[in-house]
Each structure stands twice: as C-alpha cells, then as structure tokens.
Design goal:
The protein is α+β, with helices and mostly antiparallel strands. It is elongated, with a radius of gyration of 19 Å.
Length: 188
C-alpha cells in the first residue's frame, strides 16, 4: 500500500466516526512518515493522537548492549536514512565531523557505498559498524565489522535479514556487558 493510499484509508475510516489506530513498528516519528499522515489528517479536520514507540536504534543498542552516546566516546547521535527519496546524498563529511554515533535506517543495499563515502569523508577506516537485523524480534542478527570490511565487500549485506539498521561509531565496539546482561536475565 502506498503512503497516499494509507492516507486515504485513514481519512475514510476516521470520517465514519470510528476510533482508528494506525500501528507502526518502532517510533512513527523516526522515518515512519508520521509527518505526512499528520498533515493529511489535519488537512481533513481529523483529530489524532500520537503514541510514541521505541525506535530501532534505541532497541538495537539495548539488545546488543551498547549505548548510543557515552561520555568521552560519543556526545551525540544522528539518525539518518541510507537513501534519500529524491536521490540526493547525505553530507557525509558534516556527519563524520560531528563525531556522533550514526544510525542508518533503510538502504541496506547501499551500506557498502555508504562505508566508502564515510571513509572518503574522513571517518577512520577501522571505525566499527554494527549491522543489526530484525531488532527485538525472533531471528535477529548482529554483525560487528568495520567500515573498511563493509566497503571492501568482506561482509555480504545482501544475506542479512531485513529490516536492518546500521550503527556506526566507537560505542558499538565489542560489547563490554554482554556476559553480564545474560547473567542478569538468568537471575531475574
């Protein structure tokens, strides 16, 4: 179903007086097209309420036991799309220069070229990147690699299940707490 078709269904059903729930995975405000749906509903005079969810980047960090920010390592986090709808590209140098943890949504196929662009923009070639698939779901996977290995094709992104989020930055280095997390779960 296209976004335009979804918008039409939302207005049609809400106009009939019922309570309509538009359920989305993750947080609808982070690459969930929430803005378009709110604009469309407002243009048709339909009241709505937004219930936030947990975005994939936050869930990925929790599942894989890494923070998105960490004092002395990463003071900020940036959520990015792996591909822009209009075909333009991100300003990779600006993102690299911030030193932020980069969370790349969508665009799994573009990740090797994104790694090349990040290195060309000044990112350290050995900067770690985590490729997390089906976060918080059965069948999830977690691949820790580097920008160089991703850029060179050593990691075949096409075999990883989707949805996939890539998290780039020093905070995703090998987990320091993984054993403890299992122990805590066992004690619960």
């Amino acid at each position: 179903m296209t976004q335009d078709e979804i918008n039409i269904v939302l207005v049609r059903e809400a106009s009939q007086g019922g309570l309509i729930v538009r359920l989305k995975g993750g947080d609808p405000g982070v690459f969930g097209r929430l803005g378009e749906e709110m604009d469309h509903l407002a243009a048709h005079g339909i009241n709505f309420e937004v219930v936030p969810g947990v975005t994939a980047a936050t869930a990925a960090g929790a599942d894989a036991t890494f923070p998105l920010t960490h004092r002395g390592i990463a003071a900020s986090v940036t959520f990015l799309t792996g591909h822009c709808a209009d075909g333009t590209d991100q300003n990779w140098k600006a993102h690299v220069d911030t030193g932020a943890t980069l969370c790349l949504y969508m665009g799994a196929k573009a990740l090797p070229s994104v790694a090349v662009k990040l290195i060309a923009a000044g990112a350290q070639a050995d900067l770690p990147i985590r490729l997390l698939s089906k976060v918080s779901q059965d069948g999830s996977s977690d691949v820790l690699t580097t920008l160089t290995d991703l850029a060179s094709g050593k990691v075949d992104v096409s075999v990883l299940p989707t949805p996939l989020i890539a998290v780039v930055g020093a905070v995703v280095a090998p987990p320091r707490h993984a054993g403890l997390m299992g122990r805590i779960a066992a004690l619960a």
